[in-house]
Amino acid sequence: MPHSTNTESLPDAKKDTASGGLKPCVGYALMPEEIRQNCLVFLHDILNSASGLQGFLELMTETEDPEKLKKYTMNSFMLCDSLVEEIHYHREFLLSESEQLDPVFEEARIQDVLEFAVLKLKSHKVSKGRTIEIVETSAESISTDKVLLSRILVNMVKNAVEAVDSGESVQIGAAKFDDKVRFWVHNSSVIPKEVQNHIFEIPSSTKGKNRGIGLFSVRLLGENALGGHVWFESTPEKGTSFYIDLPLMP
Question: Is the pLDDT reported for residue 21 higher than 90?
Answer without folding.
Answer: no
